[in-house]
Amino acid sequence: MVGVDTTSTDPPESKSLASVGYKRAISAEGLLSLAPDLVLATDEAGLPEVLEQIRAAGVTVRQVPNAATPEGLHETIRAVAATLDTVEPGERLIGRIELELAELARRIGQVEKRSRVLFLMVVGAGIDHSAGQSTPVDALIQLAGGENVLHDAVEGYKPLSPEVSLAAAPDVILVSQRGLDDLKGIDGVLGRAGLAATPAGQARRVIALDSGLLFHFGPRLAEAATELAEKLGTLDRPKVADVGE
To answer: What is the pTM of this model?
Structure first.
C-alpha cells in the first residue's frame, strides 16, 4: 500500500500512508506521484475523467461494487480478493463477518419495539441532511434492530427540513461523533432542523457513532452494528440468577 483516500481510516496503519484526497474528488497528479501499480476504487469513486487519466498513464484501475448491504459487502470483498489473488483469505473474511452478524441477530432476537431513528448529518455550510434507503446508515440501523424513520421516504442522502423531522417523529437521533463534536454537543444537535420538538428532542435522546463505523461497509460491519445496537438498547441482557449461599 502506498496511499489511501481520506475515508480510509482503518486499520490504524493506514493513517501513516500518503493521502490522495476525498474519494469522489481525487487528483490524478497527486495519485500518480505515488507511482502505484494498481488503483482499487469503489464504483462511486471519481471523478470518471480522473480515473481515465490514471488509466491513460498506464496504471491499472479496478473498480469494485460497493452496495450498502451485507451481500454487497461480500461482493466487494470477493472482487478485491480476486484482483489481489487472495481468494481463500477473502472467503475466510466473509465467513467471519457472517458469523459475527448471525451472533448479533441472535442477541437482538425478536425486538418488541424498534427504536425509531433519524440520522442527522451537517454538510458544508450548515446544510442539514438525513439518510434513506440505499445508504450504509440505513442498513446499519436495520442490522442494529432499529427503524430508520425515513427509509420509505428518502433515497440516498437528502436535505432535512423541520417539517420532515416533525412528521417523522423519531424517538432517537443518530449523528456521527464528529458531527456531535462539531455541533458542540446535544444542544447543538437539537438546534437543527426542528429536532428539539420531536419526541427524541424532548427526551434529549441523541446517540453518536464513530464516522468510520457509521458510513463505511467494511470488515468492521458487525462491530459497528453491535455498538449501535448497544446504544439503542436492542441487545438482550444476560439473565443472572441469584441462588444465594
So the answer is: 0.87
